[in-house]
Amino acid sequence: MAYLLGAEGVGLSFPTRDVLSGLTLGLNEGDRIGVVGRNGDGKSSLMRILAGRLEPDTGRVTRRGGVTVGFLDQGDTLDPTLTVGTAVVGDAAEHEWASDARIRDVIGGLLRDLDWLAPLSSLSGGQRRRVALATLLIGDWDCLFLDEPTNHLDIEGVAWLARHLKSRWPAGAGGLLVVTHDRWFLDEVSTLTWEVHDRTVDAFDGGYAAYVLQRVERDRQAAANELRRQNLMRKELAWLRRGAPARTSKPKFRIEAANQLIAAEPPVRDSVKLTQLATARLGKDVIDLLDVSVAFPTPAGPRPVLGDVEWRIGPGERSGILGANGAGKSTLLNLVTGVLEPTGGRVKRGKTVKVATLSQQLTELDAIGHRRVREVIAELRTGYVVDGKEFTPGQLLERLGFPTAQLSTPIRDLSGGQRRRLQLLLILLDEPNVLVLDEPTNDLDTDMLAALEDLLDSWPGTLLVATHDRYLLERVTDQQYAVIDGHLRHLPGGVDQYLQLSAERRSRGSNPSDAGTAPAAAPTAGPSAAERRTMGKELAAAERQLNRLQERAATLHATLAETDPSDYGRLTELGSELSGVQAEIEDAELRWLELAERIEASV
């Protein structure tokens, strides 16, 4: 693989601590790298150094001549005086940019609901973020560096971005480096994972699922103080292995090793036991939405948001809510929590229902911002039972990755992620029996998300989750619903069914969120029967090639085992041939997966 750019002996220090030390790593043609690690450990700093946006204190960054790098920063750097169209395509005439398939695809994927002539100053922060991403993606770059690209994208947008990045370059070309907490997205686009921790970077083959497996193997050999994190990741791995088959079909994900690791692992949660506990706490009646409608007043008259919603929420129900931005998800949850009253129909609540909401904002902590963490939790319950064991509030905070040293810190001085953990703890210790999570992943890294999921696994109540984080949604809920055209629809097929429904609605031109005049990408026609037959033949051929290569590799392994250990020349020859066959197997696996995904998408 051709070298693109890299770091040699790079170090970076801030006034209070060292962030990176003596790093040597590189990005080659064909690399698709996901970067994970705790907040504050240097992920974004590493990316900025490699992109040439930040000078390291020691070492150097080298780049192959002529290599171009596109960079998506977390900051808002767009000129607010520009319109959406001018920011994306400049002064180019419509016939010029509209004839470019990539530009049409990007506009259709990210800007479908925006007014093409609207000034950027009139857009929300999330909308400007999408414009910035679109502006970057229409360019022709050798390398793309994306810092939290899925922020402000809904599930459809995240799925589109993953497809775009996977097909953006031919196999073995281009380089991608992405920092994100979206674990589903990492699994979709990454073939390598870098974990930034303790001033260094560890590299793992594969996406998030493969990273979890390899990290468990590493942690199994670690010191005793790593035992808690090891067990947590083993539980995460158990869910990955037992979940959707696509997660474990990725190349290099060693299924045999995973099976050995999780052989003795119980299911991530005991649904029967949790339902029994929830029924005991709640009774049979929780919250029923009966023929509910909601309309908001406008100068032009009432604007309907929800209509004819019938939803009977049961004890122990764990449901995820999907929908485009502005579809009415928050309105639906506000009906459940009692923040909003319906304009039609009624909401019936059980007598023992106690609802709590983990909202997108942290305003609940503002009133106690001057107090220290230790003082606040000392006034709460002395214990909380998780997996049959009682934890003190301090132990719970530690389980959520909250450092003990921070217990004496005023709440207003905590980081966003630390305040998020404290917010969740205060809610749980208040003993609600219906918990509503509205975009709960803000400010949380992948380790913290896994800890949150682990805690929710043993929570015996009704759980409702609205989030664009597909991984979290599928991980903590047992069923999904979607708000579509103002109605609530059950999704037996989960997120995949929702994406399929959304694609069908777009192809019919009935997207209710299409409120602007931004030019949409032309709908992509599905492949014909003849094209599908051709893809089927290619898939069969790829499978035959893969089988032949695997048989050849098995033969070489057997020959190596029988070869005289002192015959170094023969061993070297066989080893070199085996390495070549393994590389061919990886290419064949990727080709097979690409064809299989194309065929599945065309059905």
TrEMBL record:
In terms of InterPro entries, this protein maps to: AAA+_ATPase, ABC_tran_C, ABC_tran_Xtn, ABC_transporter-like_ATP-bd, ABC_transporter-like_CS, ABCF_ATPase, P-loop_NTPase, Val-tRNA_synth_C_sf
Ranges where the record places region Disordered: 504-535
One annotated GO molecular function: ATP hydrolysis activity
User: SUPFAM superfamilies, from UniProt?
Assistant: P-loop containing nucleoside triphosphate hydrolases
Which CDD domains does this entry report, sorted A to Z?
ABCF_EF-3
Q: Which UniProt keywords apply?
A: ATP-binding, Nucleotide-binding
Q: Which intervals hold domain ABC transporter? A: 5-240, 287-510
Low complexity bias spans: 512-529
Which domain of life does the protein's organism represent? Bacteria
Could you tell me what this protein is called?
Answer: ATPase subunit of ABC transporter with duplicated ATPase domains
Q: Which organism is it from?
A: Microlunatus kandeliicorticis
Organismal lineage: Bacteria, Bacillati, Actinomycetota, Actinomycetes, Propionibacteriales
